[in-house]
Amino acid sequence: MQVMKWSVIALAVAAGTSQMAVASSQSESKGFVEDSSFNIFNRVLYMNRDFKNGAANGASDSANPAGYREETGLGIRLLYESGFTQGTVGVGVDAHSLSSIKLDSGRGRYGTGQFAQTGDGRGDDTQTEVGGAVKFRVSDTVLKYGNQFVESPVFTTDDSRILPEVATGTLLTSNEIAGLELTAGRFTALSSQTGSYRDSINGRDSDTGLKNPGLTAANIVGASYSFTENFSGAIHASDVDDYFKKQYINLNYNLPLAEEQALNFDLNAYRTKDDGQKLAGDVDNKIWSLAVAYSLGAHKFTLAHQRSSGDSAYAYGIDGNGTIWLANSVQYSDFDRKDERSWQARYDLNMAQYGVPGLSFMTRYIYGDNIDTGVGEEGKEHEFNFETKYVIQEGPAKDLSFRLRSAIWRANSVQNAEYGADNNDFRLIIDYPLSVL
């Protein structure tokens, strides 16, 4: 792993020094106000998760469980990003306000992950979180400290509900060499998608299900490099205090075959090992996935295989609930249990070539087996997904999108006992981004 890391950096330095110097982002800065932006992002999410074996399986986190969860919420995000002041060192700020409004819920239907829970088992009517960060830029290197949204394979804030997670900490991102991006960061708090206070997310022991004290500190480093227009690689690592240490690699290769035809190969792999007080329990896992996609005009056909090995399942969550960049991490299941092997077949269709720009469809099927459940019987699971999305292309409602997501997840009895009840998961997501400034 270390050899590969330094090989990538050495190649990047050689490539960068062979190129003529170009203007940096900071030298082209127009100013704090002149380069600023203000956006309003609105999301409505209706979510229904029907547990087919009923309330006896604990379908709801609330009193009087109805055997399913059903809620609708509205999320409103105000996002301001300033430009950088001019000069050698540019200074700027980012600020956000995140608000949720409960449109529909109930004591028996609570638990889709959209709202905090009140003392009587209901979804909270409203919640608001505000935050900000200060940022500095020298040339093409940016240092940001404060509340921020993060997208790293080893630390990703999740955005699968009406509001995203928010991390607090420091992130350094450098793009000084063409094709090479270097990152380093330290995060000391993570707020959940339903928590409006600074450190509202807790990890969960993969074996016992017990909550732990929360994030103390997560240190991350990473490098990604585009070797050619069609071949790129990345290597990242993290150290989450008293939980685990994690390493990640990615290789992505696109092979053009003919006009409107191409093959894409995408390899992702993690190595995770418990550390310190082992607050996530005993963790010792290796997991990888390889996806091969064939594109033919408006059509794309994908086959993927994913395999987990070691003494535990893959562990994540305390380092962000989006920290699982694997092919078979899909709508409901991640197919990441101990010793699990899974296969996926997927089909995508872009209707733009048939005269309907903005309309797309996706369907996939994933099957997993060989799960070590610890009771002597092999665990098995499978999931079917169907998704359609339409984005308005022009006019006053430009970029307004409607997205339907449907998942059917089933497992045998021993896997149900470990992972949860069989269920059908249906979501309607309406996103409306508005650029004010």
UniProtKB/TrEMBL annotation:
UniProt GO MF annotations: porin activity
Keyword Transport in annotation: yes
Pfam families: OprD
Keywords recorded for this protein, A-Z: Signal, Transport
Sequence intervals crossing the membrane: none
Residue runs in coiled coils: none
Domain of life: Bacteria
Signal peptide start-end: 1-23
InterPro entries assigned: OM_porin_bac (IPR005318), Porin_dom_sf (IPR023614)
Entry GO terms, CC: membrane
Family as reported in the entry's similarity comment: Belongs to the outer membrane porin (Opr) (TC 1.B.25) family.
Protein name, entry field: OprD family porin
Originating species: Ectopseudomonas oleovorans
